[in-house]
Write a structure and sequence with these properties.
Layout lengths: L1 H32 L6 H19 L1 H26 L9 H23 L15 E4 L2 E4 H23 L1 H11 L1 H6 L4 H22 L10 H16 L4 H21 L1 E4 L2 E4 L7 H12 L27 H16 L6 H24 L10 H16 L4 H23 L4 H21 L1 H4 L5 E2 L10 H24 L1 H11 L1 H6 L4 H27 L1 E2 L6 H14 L6 H19 L3 H15 L4 H14 L1
Antiparallel strand pairs: 1-2, 3-4, 5-6
């Protein structure tokens, strides 16, 4: 019994070392630049692929260990180029827009890896000199895993010395604590940002290369690792290297012990602890953030002083705007008369995602909150409607069931989430979303598990594609009108006041948390309504509707259109859906094409499409 426990502990520590090597790079990057680098997982993946290429072409000890070094240097060079050509141009843009730029890099790097190395998994060689195992209380344990444990400790020591004993480390710590003051004292911010981004990329490449003997190189590695890395960085505290080390150990040990426990019967109830490995890290993160809002070793994030400005004033829609909306409604209503079935299917997707994006826009814009898990409410709405249909309920009862399920989840999750702010709040919403996804993915008896639910069709009177299209038009239009009403209602003005000046809002009797909670719940209800329409439009539903990529898609839509604009999420949803559909049908490497397009939009329209055009029109009228 003790031998098995010790073995699971050592397995957890080996995994923790691998995870720490990657996570500490992201922690350093965020601490200095304040960029939530979605592409960090892609840099890790490139490290594995580069190490594989060097190890297989050169061979032997030189090929493997040389490949580790080459992978780190190559990935550092790629990170350096990305920072110089892309990120340096948008450091003054909103932080979420920077996140979308790194997401575009994810798409580009994934298709570049597909082009160079192909779609197959590539199994690398074992580490020369560490191919065997040692006996620990009668159990065999790989010597390479012992090496990883030692490397993790050595890397922590080396980084501690770098940060504590060198001028570069002093500048890093100064920029992490107060970036504007270090700039005022003459520190070259651009050079510092470039150096720390290259260092973080180097660590990601090294971490990936060292993982080659334990896991084959594959194209899914980027998204698999980035979720765990985000969790480690947030649990440990943003910008804290020791925090990342401790968090990696905690999360890896929890997962190792869950695997070792297997199925356990307590009080006559069987618990499958092994299934918790899908969500263990997110449960840990949720618990830590609820009781330690800034992570185990983190401090409140010091944002740029110039960022604390009042958001743009959203004026009531004028006659021109209402006329344009009426003309658009007429165009959408008459569309079935001039197009075929495929165009209607695409139009339904655009309207559904426009409502989904608009609901997230309420959270990010007027609410001033962050959310990386908005797909939870979209997916719960879809599953609520699907389960109601399976239970024999009618169309409108199914709609109500989906909306109530999504709204109930938003009510509970939002109560905890609004107690945090910024990146910590966004990550807590991600934790709740992943916990929800895990339940749906594994509850085979109710949700169908990974297979989902099929046969979720609208009633006979909506079986005609045109009739269903008009129903979606009516439902989505009603949802979008609610968004417009909310922004200009007393609640909308109150929550914007709480966003821009929370202390002053409290002094006149407003409760910022309560206002944000109300907006969060309303947004969850609207996302659930969009999910209901999505389920009926597809006829089936799967756990993918609650996954991280779906939440990222919604975030991209909002930011492409413009955050603090009414039309921005709608325009962003239409543009993103059309681009994705068009490019996917045009080329095998559609992700790279979509990523390049997103980068161009981010660089040319730093406030989003609608936001940038509105600012341009305002400058023209002011002349």
């Amino acid at each position: 019994m003790f031998a098995s426990f010790l073995l699971q502990t050592l397995n957890g520590l080996a995994s923790a070392s691998s995870l720490f090597l990657v996570a500490v790079g992201l922690s350093l990057i965020f601490g200095v630049t304040r960029i939530v680098n979605f592409a960090h997982g892609s840099l890790y993946m490139l490290g594995v692929y580069v190490a594989y290429s060097v190890a297989t072409h050169v061979g032997g000890a030189l090929g493997f260990w040389g490949g580790v070094v080459v992978a780190g240097l190559a990935v550092a060079l790629i990170g350096l180029i990305a920072e110089l050509l892309i990120l340096r141009r948008i450091y003054d843009a909103p932080e979420l827009l920077q996140l979308i730029a790194t997401f575009a890099l994810v798409l580009i790097i994934k298709d570049a890896a597909l082009l160079i190395w192909g779609p197959e998994d590539l199994l690398g060689p074992r580490a020369p000199g560490f191919t065997g195992a040692i006996d620990i209380l009668g159990k065999a344990f790989p010597t390479y895993d012992l090496l990883l444990i030692a490397l993790g400790v050595l890397m922590l020591f080396a980084l501690t010395m770098l940060l504590k004993k060198t001028r570069f480390g002093l500048l890093l710590r100064a920029a992490t604590q107060d970036r504007e003051m270090s700039d005022a004292l003459g520190v070259n911010q651009k050079l510092l940002f470039t150096a720390v981004f290259a260092l973080g990329s180097f660590l990601a490449g090294i971490g990936g290369a060292l993982q080659l003997p334990r896991e084959p190189a594959n194209l899914a590695m980027d998204l698999t690792i980035i979720a765990d890395v985000f969790v480690v960085v947030v649990v440990g505290g943003l910008g804290s290297s020791p925090g990342a080390f401790v968090a990696a150990i905690i999360i890896s040990l929890v997962k190792a012990y869950c695997i070792g426990a297997g199925d356990v019967t307590l009080f006559g109830v069987e618990f499958a602890f092994s299934k918790l490995t899908l969500v263990a890290e997110f449960v840990v993160m949720a618990l830590v953030l609820v009781f330690k809002p800034h992570g185990l070793f983190g401090k409140p994030i010091t944002h740029a002083r110039t960022a604390a400005v009042i958001g743009p004033l959203l004026r009531p829609l004028g006659r021109g705007a209402w006329l344009a909306a009426a003309l658009l409604a007429c165009f959408m209503g008459l569309l079935p008369l001039a197009t075929g079935d495929y165009a209607l299917v695409l139009a339904v997707d655009m309207m559904v995602f426009a409502l989904f994006a608009a609901s997230l826009g309420l959270v990010i814009g007027p609410g001033g909150m962050g959310s990386f898990g908005h797909a939870a409410y979209f997916g719960l709405g879809a599953y609520g409607a699907a389960l109601a249909v399976k239970a024999g309920l009618g169309f409108f009862a199914a709609m109500a069931g989906g909306v109530l399920l999504a709204g109930g989840a938003a009510l509970v999750f939002g109560w905890f989430s609004v107690r945090l702010s910024g990146t910590y709040m966004a990550m807590l919403t991600l934790a709740f979303a992943q916990i929800t996804w895990s339940i749906v993915f594994q509850w085979d008896a109710v949700t169908g598990g990974s297979n989902g639910l099929v046969g979720v069709w609208p009633p006979e009177w909506l079986s005609d594609r045109t009739n269903f299209y008009w129903m979606v038009c009516a439902v989505c239009a009603a949802g979008l009108l609610v968004c417009v009403w909310l922004v200009h209602a007393p609640l909308g003005y109150s929550v914007r006041a709480a966003r821009d000046a929370p202390v002053k809002a409290q002094s006149i009797g407003l409760s910022p948390r309560r206002l944000q909670w109300v907006v969060f719940v309303i947004a969850g209800v609207l996302a659930g309504l969009a999910g209901v329409m999505h389920a009926f439009s597809k006829g089936s539903i799967s756990p993918d509707v609650l996954s991280i990529p779906r939440s990222v898609d919604a975030l991209v839509m909002v930011l492409l259109g413009g955050i603090n604009t009414l039309a921005g999420p709608i325009v962003g949803a239409v543009a993103f859906t059309w681009l994705q559909d068009t490019l996917a049908r045009s080329t095998e490497y559609w992700r790279a094409a979509l990523g390049v397009t997103i980068l161009l939009i981010v660089l040319l329209f730093p406030r989003g499409i609608v936001g940038t055009l509105s600012a341009f029109a305002a400058r023209r009228s002011a002349r």
